[in-house]
Amino acid sequence: MESRRVAAISGGPRTAVVAAIPEEIAPLVGRLRNRTKAPLAVEASGGWLSLTVGFLGDEPLAVLVTGDGAVRARYGVRALLEAVPVSQLLAVGSAGGLTPELETADLIMARQVISTDGSRREAPEASDSAARAAGARLGTVVTVDDLVLTADEKRRMWESIGPSEDAGVLDLESAYFVEAAEEAGVPWVVIRAVFDTVSETLPDFLHDCSGPGGEIRRPAVLRHAARHPRVIPDLLRMRSRIDLCGRALAEAVAGYLAISVGISTRVAS
Fold first, then answer.
1. d(C-alpha 155, C-alpha 199), whole Å
2. How far is 207 from 32, CA to CA, in rounded Å?
3. Which of 4, 113, 134, 190 has its CA 20 to 30 A from that of 91?
4. How far is CA 262 from CA 29, 56, 57, 130, 254, in A?
């Protein structure tokens, strides 16, 4: 895959923060100073992404929303790493809870990331002190290739991983973010906020509104809501939750950077 930088990004290596959807990263972006946008071409997909650069405290950040699902995550983060000098990659976003101790907006810093093929990547940058600084706990992140909506599916997913004392969450992108970082020789950290707990079942119409990699097709969601207004309260609750997760993730990034690069500014919730 090839990508190119369209607007010059000055300065040395910076921390890159990637997320799948805008709501997961919006509270952090809103608190960057001197922020600007730079278009990033992703030639493998024939599309463009909008890269935001700015400062959190004194730390220069490059923030990218890749789009959800495996393909968008893979292409987007590779384009970023080819275009921008990056000192470390923080992959953040929402996730489904897999273990009962996790509540909505609880934070997990990945001790390991498990891919759909069963391969495991250990996170050398993760530690108890790093997790505490981020307001998170260490745990396992499992990347899946389709939506997992029901409580029973989530429990079966965790059982299939094998015995573990970790807290666990699942998502659609972390393994692809991590794979690209390791290919580029960039240290990485994954932080996920719990969107739905293990005991909760999300609305089944989301399957009908998703693509082959689990990505949500927003126009399809809007069309479904127009035809079935009874789902609108569910959508509003989900929007409130993703906003809550975004605020928690902004705090987590600031807390982690405070110890990893020494910034003194913590993000207000």
1. 9
2. 35
3. 4
4. 19, 11, 9, 12, 10
pLDDT in tens, 180-233: 999 999 999 999 999 999 999 999 999 888 888 788 889 999 999 999 999 999
**Which of 246, 166, 198, 170 lies closest to 102 in space, CA to CA?**
198
> What distance in Å separates the CA atoms of residue 87 and residue 258, rounded to the nearest whole number?
15
Vertex 64 angle, CA 12 and 237, to 5°: 145
41-60 pLDDT, tens digit per residue, is 886 666 889 999 999 988 99
- 55: closest CA among 26, 85, 30, 32? 32
Report the sign of the C-alpha dihedral through residues 150, 153, 155, 161, in that order: negative
**What is the rounded radius of gyration, in angstroms, for the C-alpha atoms of the chain?**
18
Longest CA pairwise span in the chain (Å): 51
130 in Cβ contact with 137 (< 8 Å): no
Amino acid identity at 212: P
- CATH no. for 3-260: 3.40.50.1580
Predicted TM-score of the model (pTM) = 0.91
φ, ψ of residue 47 to 5 degrees: the values are: -120, -175
Rounded distance, CA 60 to CA 53, Å? 7
For residue 240, give every residue at least 6 positions away whose Cβ sits within 8 Å of its Cβ, in sequence order, or none.
none
Please state, as a whole number, how many other Cβ atoms lie within 10 Å of the Cβ of residue 155.
Answer: 15
SS3 content of the chain, % helix, strand, coil (to 5): 35, 30, 35
Task: Write out the H or E segment, with its range, that includes residue 252.
Answer: helix 232-260
